[in-house]
Amino acid sequence: MESQPPQVEKSDVNEEKKLIEDKKQRAKKIVTQVFCQLTKGCGREFCTNKDCASNKMKFKDRNLTEKEALKIAIQFVKTMGSDSNKIKLCPSATIPKTIQIEELAQLSEATKEDFEKRFLEVFSSPFTLSFSFLKDREIYLKTDTHNIDFDKLSEFYKIFDAKFDEEERLKLFTTAGENFVDSFKKESKDIEEPWILRSFLINFENPDLMSPSFESIIDRIAYMLESQLNKKNIDSHLKEVLQGSDQEFIMEELKEDMTVHETYKIQSDILVYWLSKLDKERFLDHIRKFQNILSINIFNESFNSENVLEFLDTLESQESRAFIRLLSLLDIYHGANVNKEPEDQINYLEFNNDGFNKEMCLDVDLGGHYEVWVRAMNFCDRNDVPFRKYEVTTFCNYPWLLDTTAKGEIMMTEAKIYMQQMADEELANIFIQGLSSQNPGINNADMIYLQFKVRRDFIIEDTLNNLIREGINLKKQLKVEFEGELGQDEGGVQKEFFQILVRDLFKPEYTMFNYFKDSKLVWFNGETFESNIKFELIGVLMGLAIYNGVILDIHFPVACYKKLLNIEPTLDDIKELDPSTGKSLQYILDCDSPTLQDDLYMTFIYEYEVFGENKTEALKENGANIFVSQENKQEYVELLIDFIFNKSIENQFEAFSRGFHKACGGDALTLFRPEELQKLICGSQKLDFEAMMKETRYDGFEGEEEVLNWFWDILIDEFNEEQQKKFLFFCTGCAKAPVSGLESIGFIIVKNGEDDEKLPC
C-alpha cells in the first residue's frame, strides 16, 4: 500500500505565509531605516552615531552614494546578529530639544508653566542636557574641551531663580533628578561616551547647591557620576580576599574587573581635564558647595561616623554612602586642581574640611584607618595588583581632607606601632634567652628604648657613635642621658638634646649649609668638606623628631620637603630660597623682546661663590658657547633649577634623605604635602595665645582673678612677637606652636601659696 503525503492544514500555510510576510516587512523597515540613516540622517539635533549622516562631526561615509547606501543596508539585514555587522542604529526614541543661547531671552519672558515644561524636558535627559548651553555647536563631540558657555548657563539659573522660590526649585530639581536617573538607564548606550559628563558640570553650576535643602540633589548627581565612572566590583573582591575567601578565584575576578576599570578611567581622566580648565573662581565655587554639604553630613545627628570607620563595613546606610560619594567627588576635583597651572590652583587648604578635622576626628580612629590602608596596599603589592583608592573605605585614601594635625596623629600611630613591635620583639628575646637573670649587667631599657648617652661638649661625635652601633633600631622611643647629669628623660632632656644638636650642626663653621640673608633660609652646601655622615645625621634627627613629637628650629625651604617626598622643585622654590635670583629668572621667562639674547648676553653658565671665590658651572654640554635666547630660555631656567636643587648637592642630599627615611620612612609619610611635612617638623609660626588662654587649666585659681587678667593682658596685648616667642620657649622649650596649635599644649597655671607668704621679711 502506497504511503500518502502528509496533509497540511490550510491554516498552517496561511500562518507561515504571514510570518514570512512579517519578516519581509521588518527587513524592509530596517533597510529603509539604515538607508535613510546613511543618506539623510536620523534628524536628531546632535547625533553622536558615527554611522549616521546627522552626525556633522564624525560620519565616516560622507560621500556615500544612494546605491552604495542601499547595498550596505541590505547587507546589514543579512548579517544582523553577527560580529561582522558593524553599523550602529540610532535610537528611535524622540529626544527633547536642547536649550541654547538664543532661547534664553524667550525663556526669560516665558510663563512659569512654559519654563517649567522646558526645564523638565531638558534636565530630565542626560543626553539633551549634555548638548545644551554649548559655546560652539560645530564641535559638539570634541572632548578636549567641555564646550559649556558658563556665562549663559549662569544667566539661565538667574532666570530660574527669579521665576520660582526655593521650595519650588527644589521640587523641580527633585522631579528632574528622578527622571534623569530613569533616562540614564534608557540612554545607556549613548552614555558610554564621555561628552555625557557635561550634564554633571551643568548641574554643579546650580547656585542652589549651597543650600542644605539641596543636599539630596547633590547626592543624586554624585550617585549618577559614581555610576558613570564605575569602578565595578573591585572593592568587593578585595574585601572578600581580605576576609579569607578563595584568593586564587577572587584574584582572577579582580584582574578582569581591572580591565573594565581602565575603560571607565578614560572618562575619569577627561572629566579631570575639563575641571582643570575651569576658571579659578568657578572651580572654587564648586569645591565650597561640596564642602558645605560635607559639613552638613558631619554635623547631622543622624550621621553615624561608625559606618565609615570600619574597613569591611558594608556602608549600607544612606548617610554613610552619601558621605563617601561626596569624598569621591571632591577627590576628582582635587586631582583636577593638581593638574591646573600653578597660578590657577586653589589653595590646598580649601580641601581640608574644618568640620571633619575639628569635630569628627575626635571620634574617628585614624590609627585604625592607617592600619587598614597599609594592609590593602600590602595585599596589592603581594599580588601585583595596582592599588586603587576606591577599593577600600579609609580616610587615608583622601589625604587632602585631613589637616596636618590629623596626619600627624596617623604618623604617631605608625610610630607607636613600630615602637610596640620593637618592644615586643626585644621583650620576647629577654624572655626566651633569660637575659634578665643570666646577665644582670644588661640594661633592659636598651631593649625597649633607643638610648643615647652623650656629652654636652661632644654632642655631635657622641650622637654619631650612638647611631653607628651595630643592630641599632631607630624606630623605638628615644631616651637621652647627658653624661654626668642626674635626671630621667621624660621628654624635657630629649627636647634639649635636639635643640643643642641642631644648633651645633647648623653653625657656620661647619660649612654644611649656605645661608640666604634675604629669605633667612639655609640650603645644602655641595662644596663642603664635611663628611656625608653628618648630613645623614641631620636626616636621622628630623625623622626621630617626628616620631618623638619634638619640634625643631630648622630653616629649610619647602623645596627640601618636596625632595623628601620625591616632588621636583620649581621656580617658585627658587623665589622662596633666593628671591633676587627667582625674580631674575621670572623676568627672563616673561620677557618677549626679540632682542632678549643681546640684552642678556648670557650663556648656559651658572656663576656662584664658594668660600669667597667665584666658581662657574656649565648647565649643559658646551654651555659656555650657548647664549640664552627666546627659543631656549625655558630650558635655561629648568637646568638652573635642577642644578641648584639637585645636581650641585646630589651626594649631600642623598645622605640626608637616607638618614631621614631610615628613621621616618613609613607609609604615613606619603599622606603629607611638603608644606605639611615642614609644619610637622618645624611647628607653626602662628602663635594664638587667645586660643591657649581658652584651654588653660588652673590649679588654686578660679580663673577670674585680677592677677590672671594682668597675666593674659601682658602676654597677648603688650608683648611683641619676639617676647611671646621667648615666653613660649621658657614654658615649653620651643618657640613655635605645635601643628595642633597652642591650645593643645595643655597649659596649666598653678598657684604657689598665698601672696603674703612670698613677701620679703
UniProtKB/TrEMBL annotation:
One MF annotation (Gene Ontology) recorded for this entry: ubiquitin protein ligase activity
Entries under SMART domains matching the protein: HECTc (SM00119)
Catalysed reactions listed for this entry: S-ubiquitinyl-[E2 ubiquitin-conjugating enzyme]-L-cysteine + [acceptor protein]-L-lysine = [E2 ubiquitin-conjugating enzyme]-L-cysteine + N(6)-ubiquitinyl-[acceptor protein]-L-lysine
Enzyme Commission designation: 2.3.2.26
UniProt keyword terms in alphabetical order: Transferase, Ubl conjugation pathway
Every HECT domain range: 470-761
Claim: Zinc is one of the keywords in the record: no
A single GO BP: protein polyubiquitination
SUPFAM superfamilies: Hect, E3 ligase catalytic domain
Name by which UniProt lists this protein: HECT-type E3 ubiquitin transferase
Organism per entry: Euplotes crassus
